[in-house]
From TrEMBL:
It holds the Pfam family GntR. Residues 21-88 form the HTH gntR-type domain. This is GntR family transcriptional regulator. InterPro entries: Bact_HTH_transcr_reg, Chorismate_lyase_/UTRA_dom_sf, Tscrpt_reg_HTH_GntR, UTRA, WH-like_DNA-bd_sf, WH_DNA-bd_sf. It comes from Streptomyces physcomitrii. CDD domains: WHTH_GntR.
Length: 263
């Protein structure tokens, strides 16, 4: 199949044009605005809706629909009463790497705002999911995730109080929980089970993250264990779909098995 010469890696096949060739007017405007955004530095303002409508000779509602798509895709973001170029998304590896390390690798400054730190008896549902004992004390740590002071997501962590008995006094909520476990307590991560899905934020979550409830979110559930296989934490991490992406490296397990069988 032949593709247009300007087909960029990772772009929609045939630039999103349907097979019948009829392109919705808003989509054609969106494509032209996207080219305009590519020429702007991060944080630079986009022309007003009125200016864009006059430039492309379309109704302002057509421009609004195009801008809504670009906002949801993360190419634009609201700033005050205007719209600015958002810059590239943050890319987080799907691995046992802390949020702090992942953000710093991209030259951004990580941070967190504490929402709450509570201690309560482990209920039956949490015990079944994590392997903890029903009724044993559990910490619940909830924080808003930041990058360069911009709110990026919401993280909810459950951990047995026995493993971190002084979490409320020894831990800086703005710092990395993984570093605290490793550097202060000598606890190392062994492995984890992780599941990724797309969701919409609840009204409470949208308020804490500072996004519209209709914005798609990336949700990660993680059950972590230490090097001895003991349950360590249960984490629910909610990331903004317009500002985050995830990456991983895959290997062909069949080639590994063939290699093992030949030795």
């Amino acid at each position: 199949m032949d593709y247009p010469n300007d087909q960029a890696p990772g772009a929609p096949v045939r630039s999103g044009i349907p097979e019948h060739g009829r392109i919705p007017k808003y989509y054609a405007v969106k494509a032209r605005i996207a080219l305009l955004v590519d020429e702007l530095a991060e944080g630079n303002a986009l022309p007003t809706e009125r200016d864009l409508a006059e430039r492309y000779e379309v109704a302002r509602e057509t421009v609004r629909q195009a801008l809504r798509d670009l906002l949801l895709e993360g190419k634009l973001r609201r700033q005050g009463r205007g719209t600015v170029a958002a810059g590239p998304k943050l890319e987080q590896p799907l691995s046992l790497v802390s949020y702090t390390e992942g953000v710093r690798r991209q030259g951004r400054t990580p941070g967190r705002n504490l929402i709450g730190l509570d201690r309560f008896p482990c209920n039956a549902a949490l015990a079944e999911e994590t392997g903890l004992r029903p009724g044993e004390p559990v910490w619940h740590l909830e924080r808003v995730l930041l990058a360069d002071e911009e709110r990026m997501g919401l993280e909810s962590t459950y951990v047995a109080a026995e493993r971190v008995p002084h979490l409320d006094t020894d831990f800086d909520p703005d710092s990395s929980f993984y570093s605290y476990l490793h550097d202060r307590l000598g606890i190392a991560f062994g492995d984890a089970d992780e599941r990724l899905e797309t969701v919409l934020a609840t009204p409470r979550e949208a308020l804490l993250i500072g996004t519209p409830p209709a914005l798609p979110m990336l949700l990660i559930h993680r059950i972590s264990r230490d090097t001895e296989g003991r349950p360590l934490e249960r984490v629910r991490s909610l990331y903004r779909g317009d500002r985050f992406s995830f990456s991983t490296r895959l290997r062909d397990s069949s080639s590994t098995r063939l290699g093992d069988s030949s030795t």
